[in-house]
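Renewal narrative, Specific Aim 1. Our central claim is that a sequence can be written position by position from structural information alone. The example that follows is taken directly from our test logs and has not been curated for this report. It begins with the structure tokens describing the chain, in the order in which they were read.
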């Protein structure tokens, strides 16, 4: 059952780099769920002068190339540049892996948690059926249902069969850091007043597996980010009721 559902997941070719120099005056938005640090100098070792919240917008004054990376556990690192920002209140530097030039939609969960949505405006939706191969627990003529929603920046697909669900997000024109932060926003949650975020637990080749932030023992399992050789990024999860 599980293997059948993952075989139906959708993927889209995405650009892998978000580190191109920004034109002065470009507006960037914070997409890190817990905010982004503003450093006094273009270095992670420099003093933090303030922290900008999720969704905050800043104008780039200068881009400074960097070999530093933002570490996500031991097996994943996000490259980036330092973006200099100047306001009447402060001057400082943000690491571009926390940012996007696309204005995100900031939403709130039913628990009141703010999170970002990078899918963009909804364009269309459709439902398809796909025949499932008969097996010991699958009768002949069984079908899986695929609910597919197209957005301005990508596609969301949910494939359901026999009480189990496979979810996939496929983005267009978004970079690895944006896809990663969408994963964090989509699968984080509050436990009381404590924020629980996905945690990288393993890497096998180009597949990164995370815990599900809103409860490791909850129904949603097998949260993965796959970076394919042809530049395709796939966020997928699987759960059964």
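The sequence written for that structure reads:
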């Amino acid at each position: 059952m599980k293997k059948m559902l993952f075989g139906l997941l959708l993927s889209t070719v995405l650009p892998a780099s978000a580190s191109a120099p920004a034109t002065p005056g470009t507006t960037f938005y914070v997409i890190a769920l817990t905010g982004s640090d503003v450093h006094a100098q273009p270095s992670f070792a420099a003093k933090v002068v303030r922290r900008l919240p999720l969704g905050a917008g800043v104008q780039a004054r200068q881009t400074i190339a960097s070999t530093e990376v933002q570490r996500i556990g031991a097996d994943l690192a996000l490259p980036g540049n330092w973006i200099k920002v100047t306001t009447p209140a402060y001057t400082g530097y943000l690491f571009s892996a926390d940012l996007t030039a696309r204005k995100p939609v900031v939403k709130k969960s039913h628990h009141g948690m703010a999170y970002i949505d990078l899918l963009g405006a909804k364009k269309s939706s459709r439902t398809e059926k796909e025949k499932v191969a008969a097996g010991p627990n699958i009768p002949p003529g069984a079908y899986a249902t695929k609910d597919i929603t197209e957005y301005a920046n990508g596609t969301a697909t949910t494939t359901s069969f026999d009480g189990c669900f496979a979810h996939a997000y496929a983005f267009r024109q978004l970079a690895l850091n944006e896809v990663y932060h969408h994963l964090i926003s989509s699968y984080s949650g509050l436990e009381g007043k404590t924020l629980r975020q996905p945690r990288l637990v393993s890497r096998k080749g180009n597949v990164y597996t995370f815990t599900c932030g809103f409860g490791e023992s909850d129904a949603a399992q097998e949260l993965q980010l796959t970076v394919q050789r042809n530049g395709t990024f796939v966020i997928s999860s699987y759960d059964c009721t």
